[in-house]
Amino acid sequence: MFPASCSNNCDFLVTYNVTSSNKVEFELSGQGDWVAVGFSDDQSMPDTEILMCVSNGSLSGHYYASERSTPTMTTPTPTAVTVIEQANDDGMMKCRISRDINPSPAIQNVRNLNEEVYLLGAIGSLSGVTIQQHSDVARQSSNSKITVTQAEDPTTTATAQGSFRIPDSCSSSDDCDFLVTYQRIGDTVEFELSGKAGWAGVGFSDDQNMADTDLLLCVSERSESGHYYAEDRTTPTMTTPTPSAVTILEHSNEGGVVKCRISRIIDPRISNFRDLSQPWFLLGAIGDFNGGIQQHSLRQPTASRITVTEAGSASSDDGILTNIIVHGTLMTLAWILFASVGLFTARYMRVVWEPKQLLGTKAWFTVGITSTKIIDK
Ligand code: HEM
Ligand code: HEM
Question: Taking the complete model, does pTM exceed 0.85, yes or no?
């Protein structure tokens, strides 16, 4: 049990969150003029890569400690590191730093964060432009190695899952004629598309009509599955070869049901590819396959526009778009150090909250701490 958590009064707190396939964001806060997180092969300060925020913003950035003494700032700050925002309120230093998970080509003293590391944390004061040493209670290392890109839950960085189904009361690919679910994973959206037919398609359109629609099709013939574009109300054209923005992760055709899991980059900036972070009408359709895709036996647009990257916030009008699964959560593993209450043991905490709270402007800072479920590990 962990009764004396520093849930709303931490001297030091770092949370991290994978924000895209190659970036992880750290949110640091601490009582001091500087707050830092380090990555190390052991629990000690020598040979540690450091991300630091300093009340004097020009000192915020990337550092390296070769020994137990003032770390050296990496100048200029490597492009792999970006201080997104920082603030100092009432002696509390807070900031958000993004870091490439594994910079390629490799940069000296910049680790591959797909590998496990000890996390080191520290806070301290500033004298002029010189950072002062932490006190011996204001520095800590994690007591085991951590892979920051792997929160244990598979829903990491994912939004809630949304869906569009025909008929709207159906529940799975077993009883739905058409079903698509979508979920944002980092900078992609994963679609699970199925239909009781030879093909099932989902389209993104500016209106409820078929013309000018960006399409993903799952076809009984795997090689026919992929990206299509419908210029008008005739057979859509397959985009060949399939652009790298579209990946068929799984394909099956069993018992008269075609099913595909397809990943699509949110905004690949290719013509006929809509930016999926914007609201579009979704078009769903199924049809036969007979050497080629045949006209649909069933087709339906959603009643309103849907932003598939914000699945949790979509709403249904007349029941065509339905069943937003709201229990999807955005996970962040928080690593909390030395509480003010005199608790100096490093603990791991998992902070769970609904995506909306996190997306609030600076809500991460207080929200993550006050209105969350905290589970001791
Ligand atoms: C002006 C900057 C710094 C100076 C002069 C400094 C110096 C020292 C010294 C002398 C020690 C050994 C005494 C002790 O245990 O407290 C130490 C330990 C430690 N420091 Fe620092 N440090 C600085 C910044 C940092 C930063 C930025 C971090 C982490 C992000 C950090 C993390 C640690 C940790 C975890 C220990 C305990 C483990 C060990 O002994 O290596 N330090 N530091
Ligand atoms: C062989 C492929 C296809 C052919 C020949 C075709 C042809 C047509 C035709 C002739 C219409 C007007 C008649 C009607 O309302 O049923 C229509 C409507 C429609 N189609 Fe398709 N279609 C094809 C594939 C698709 C796909 C892949 C989708 C979406 C995933 C789609 C979505 C729709 C929708 C929502 C309508 C009703 C709105 C409208 O009239 O534009 N169609 N299609």
Answer: no
